[in-house]
Design a protein that fits this description.
single chain, about 220 residues, alpha/beta, Rossmann fold, DNA polymerase, domain 1, 6 strands, phosphoprotein, magnesium ion binding
Length: about 220
């Protein structure tokens, strides 16, 4: 029986994925590395450090660990400049009604995100109170597809893994959910997330009962 819902943040709850791209694009341009929106798909659900390593690989570049850390911090500052201006307008369509309905029906809700800025984003968008548990990049050490973030989320909700559904927009996130023995709903096109157990374009006019019914 499904009792818990675990959500990724970027691209699922709020529209912050574009800001990650803008920030990484600025870093890539500074290093004269071509970085496209298609390249950015490889960074979804991936840690900041690994994301920068992928960009370096795209450019055939190497760099010391200390230098990589400096660029990762610079990227984060650029990203923070964007998200510090966020408002409720950044919440994706249908998310608030879906969360409200699920919470009113007694489902336990957790955030499971690689973002180290999750708390700030939820505060700025007035979403924090919807979540019973927040697990983010500051509280886990392993990046998706490692299932640590979702296993920790289920544990903190007081639920078994198999009692939870994960909502994700990245391949690594879907893989992490399956590694944790959880059902995974892909937010996006089936061709981009072929491993997901079902797919949604978004949360408009969707109920948790409809999702559970389709997953059975």
């Amino acid at each position: 029986m499904i009792k818990g819902l675990l959500f990724d943040l970027d691209g699922v709850i709020v529209d912050t994925a574009k800001y990650h791209y803008y920030a990484w694009k600025q870093i890539a341009d500074e290093l004269s590395i071509e970085f496209t929106l298609q390249d950015n798909e490889r960074l979804k659900g991936v840690s900041r450090a690994r994301s920068f390593q992928i960009i370096l690989e795209l450019g055939g570049r190497t760099m010391s660990e200390a230098e990589q850390e400096e660029y990762c911090e610079k990227k984060n500052q650029i990203y923070l400049d964007y998200i510090n201006k966020m408002t409720e307008d950044e919440i994706l369509p249908g998310v608030k009604p879906f969360l409200t309905d699920a919470k009113n029906k007694g489902y336990r809700i957790a955030l499971g995100s690689a973002s180290q800025n999750a708390q700030s984003i939820l505060t700025l968008t007035n979403l924090k109170d919807y979540f019973d548990v927040i697990v983010d990049g500051k509280t886990v050490s392993a990046a998706k597809p490692n299932p640590e973030v979702f296993i920790k989320g289920a544990n903190e909700l007081g639920l078994k893994n198999e009692e939870c559904i994960v909502f994700e927009d990245s391949v690594s996130g879907i893989e992490a959910a399956h590694h944790a023995n959880m059902l995974a709903v892909g937010i996006g096109a089936e061709k981009d997330l072929p491993m997901a157990d079902m797919h949604l374009d978004g949360f408009c006019l969707v109920t948790i009962e409809k999702i559970i019914g389709e997953l059975k």
